[in-house]
Design goal:
Blueprint (H helix, E strand, L loop, with lengths): L2 H7 L25 H9 L13 H14 L3 E5 L2 H10 L7 E4 L5 H13 L3 E4 L6 H6 L5 E7 L11 H10 L4 E4 L4 H4 L9 E5 L13 E5 L11 H4 L10 H5 L3 H14 L5 H12 L1 H20 L4 E5 L9 H7 L6 E6 L2 H11 L4 E2 L9 E3 L11 H6 L6 E5 L5 H18 L1
Bound molecules: pyridoxal-5'-phosphate.
GO cellular component, one term: cytoplasm
Cofactor: pyridoxal 5'-phosphate
GO molecular function, one term: cysteine synthase activity
Amino acid sequence: MRDETKCLHAGYRPQNAEPRVMPIVQSITYVYDSTEEVAAVFDDPMKSLIYSRFGNPTVMAVERKIADLEGGVGALCTTSGQAATMMSILNICSAGDSIISTPEIYGGSINLLSFTLKKLGIECIYVSQDANDEEFHAAFRPNTKAVFGETLANPALTVLDIERFARIAHEHHVPLIVDNTFATPILCKPFEFGADIVVHSTSKYMDGHALQVGGVIVDSGNFDWNSGNFLDITSPDESYHGISYTETYGKSAYIIKARMQLMRDFGVYPAAHSAFLLNIGLETLAVRMKQYCENAIQVARYLESSDCVESIIYPGLESSPFYGLAQKYLKGASGVISFVLKGGKENAIRFMNALQLASNEVHVADIRTCVLHPASETHRQLTDGQLQAAGIHPGMIRLSVGLENVDDIIEDLNIGFNAVNRMA
Ligand SMILES: Cc1ncc(COP(=O)(O)O)c(C=O)c1O
């Protein structure tokens, strides 16, 4: 199946006389005929379902769909994108370990990596995407367990050179974890370029309708955990009858460990109803992504031609320093555009307040056009240095181009520019 077809049919194929639409199985638990059967499922929870803290038929149908779209061996849904990022790292890192990340990532991920994981004893070393191979190699320590980056960074919109990052990570026998939220598997499939684990905030394009917060981790099944570096996956888990995930589950070791061990303990599993809503978003993902990209390139060209705009970041524009990487890795540059207005923060706020169609909200990648001022909203906890490293100018506006008629979106931006010009 191709992506458009997978969006509609992967994960759930009804058999004779079964419901056409994936049903919402809203049940906490599952009934068995005997104690022996329950015991057998405890011995191997992948055999069937025990409890909806770590497995539910509706959620698992969505997991199969996303795994199929990304080309992975398995997926695990979480209650938020933050939970997915956290679990993707904690699944292989313990106190005393370190990870390497690019600083061009979502502000919430910077907080998680720099502060909360640090409290748990996991250090994050930042290496800019501009770093050469030598500088990158120099950041590795004997305790480094993973490299992390975003395909299309929020909001810096830098494009990760996935092949280079994967190659260097693999030379040090650690996996590359890629946050593929903005690209979605429709615009980029990081596994095809060597990434090992993918995470998403499904709250963005996958849901698409601003209905519910969610996340997902996807395992490529390609990483070799047997370097001696990942004893937590390869050696017996005393919290699970001494199971070795690699010996028992082979290529699916990472994602099954995340479900059986971490999801069991953290319990950040979504409800069936949330997965049902997410699936409705996923059904149109391929069609929507094409239209977001078509609208956004027109809006980006319009912004580029405006006298009010100091700079614009959209890797779909030929003038972007990331155009080459975007051509290599992306089938479109998504609907998100970042730009800086002349006159800095004051004009950015004046412009945003004047808009009538685009809403000012803490969200992105919705079907409706929306705007946000990262320096005073999503990234306000970052220091000036962190803002600069994350590629965020104080006057930067993040515009998430929606699926309205593009002429209406451009007319709305014009209203904003007029408000700025009136004050000039
Ligand atoms: C790229 C990226 N990753 C992760 C997250 C966190 O996701 P959530 O808000 O679903 O927890 C976000 C949220 O904006 C994001 O943009």
